[in-house]
Design a protein that fits this description.
about 25% strand, mainly beta, six-stranded antiparallel β-sheet, about 120 residues
């Protein structure tokens, strides 16, 4: 009797039933959305040159303030998020304006718009 070898198929990590976590700002993103508090743009170059307000670009870095429960796969199971609250991330510039909660600006982006996490 021959034993057949089964191929192991890599599966994407599925999140357990997500607990509702609300950020300090009182906001909980839905699906695979992430709430990011942008870092302030640098006002001085490494050579000590002050940058005028008009030349500053919107920040592309920030700290994750809240994370949604994750998107669902074809079977309806949640897919775990790769980012967590407190991660320092680089992200694509969102088209939308930032939202203000308690006088603090935040961006709401999809996890796919985050390009890297700095450890």
């Amino acid at each position: 009797m021959k034993h057949s070898k089964k191929k192991k198929v890599a599966k994407k990590k599925v999140a357990p039933a997500a607990k509702k976590k609300v950020s300090k700002a009182g906001i909980m993103p839905l699906g695979d959305r992430v709430l990011i508090k942008p870092q302030a743009a640098e006002t001085m170059t490494s050579f000590g040159i002050l940058l005028p307000e008009a030349s500053k670009e919107k920040p592309e870095t920030g700290v994750v303030a809240a994370v949604g429960p994750g998107r669902r796969n074809e079977r309806g199971e949640r897919i775990a998020m790769d980012v967590k609250v407190g991660d320092f991330v680089y992200f694509k510039k969102p088209w939308d304006e930032p939202i203000k909660v308690g006088g603090i600006e935040y961006y709401v982006v999809s996890e796919s718009e985050i390009t890297l996490i700095q450890k």
